[in-house]
TrEMBL record:
The lineage of its organism: Eukaryota, Viridiplantae, Streptophyta, Embryophyta, Tracheophyta. Keywords: Metal-binding. GO terms for molecular function: zinc ion binding. A zinc finger (FLZ-type) spans 18-62. It holds the Pfam family zf-FLZ. It comes from the Eukaryota. This is FLZ-type domain-containing protein. One of its GO terms (biological process) is regulation of DNA-templated transcription. It comes from Triticum turgidum subsp. durum (Durum wheat).
Amino acid sequence: MACAFFFDAEPVDEPGVHALKACALCTKPLARDSDIFMYRGDTPFCSDECRHEQMQLDAACARQAARAAARWQKQFSSGTGAGRAHRESLEVSVAS
């Protein structure tokens, strides 16, 4: 049975409408009498599978962002290309 906590704040003029209307991944409508799987505090999912898929997508995005940051850091610290030019312009402006 779904937790009644999420349905307490229903508008008086719209009975049956609640804050958790649909799965954040597949957009399947969430029913009052079904389980709701939460992720990141307030993101609802219709099933453990949808929640797990979103977690996998988030992990892949985090890995991609970490790789991009590492590439940028490597380029900046190696003293080549735009990183070196940017660093030299900082050194000149500080020395002036």
